Amino acid sequence: MNITAAQTAISAVTLEAADAVATEAFYAAAFGLGDQIRVRTTQAPTTGFRGFVLSLVVSQPSTVDSLIGTALDAGATVIKPATKSLWGYGGVIQAPDGVLWKIATSNKKDSGPFTREVDDIVVLLGVENVKATKQFYIDRGLTVAKSFGSKYVEFEAPAGAIKLALYSRKFAAKDAGVDPEGTGSHRFAINSGTAPFTDPDGFDWEQI
User: Fold this and answer.
1) Strand duo 10-17 + 37-41: pairing
2) DSSP state at residue 97
């Protein structure tokens, strides 16, 4: 299968919500990520953990606090309060549409002027078999950037593109601070230049 890196680059993600207008307004107020976050209407049933977490990687703690603050002001709820840890500083919130967002930095102290700039958007998929799903994506043309056995995999992404990473479903839920059980629709799609497909865990890729 001859697929180029440009085709597999993730340009946006589409979130499905019962009220697309309200959901779009929330994301504009909370994060201001533009057309990288798209929303469409659905009534597909979903309960519990949807199997994915969206992560905003930023440069310093003040940016984490600012983004979490505007998300909470717009109607999000706290799942894990922002705190320092061995790896840095961050927290997890849940948007009104049910999507889990992790906002984090590897730095424990501010190193420059205040900014709301987002360095990376990362799609963290919680999968049943990390090694098998890793190979599936390699076969689809993605290149591994980091890999820690069956625990974590991160794929390369061009500058400006959304990154893709894999956790086990249980670890992804634990890291986000929620129960791993969940059923129904993911209410989520990944947008890229490659032909549409569905991965082993039911996550849809759509061509744009």
Assistant:
1) parallel
2) T
pLDDT per residue as tens digits for the range 154-165: 999 999 999 999
131: Cβ contacts below 8 Å, ≥ 6 apart: 149, 150
pTM above 0.85, yes or no: yes
Nearest to 174 by CA among 53, 72, 61, 70: 53
- Say which residue the tokens 């996550």 belong to: 203
Distance CA 179, CA 160 (A): 32
Torsion angle (degrees, nearest 10) of CA 27, 55, 194, 149:
-170
Q: What is the DSSP string of 124-181?
A: EEEES-HHHHHHHHHHTT--EEEEETTTEEEE---TTSBEEEEEEHHHHHHHHTS-S-
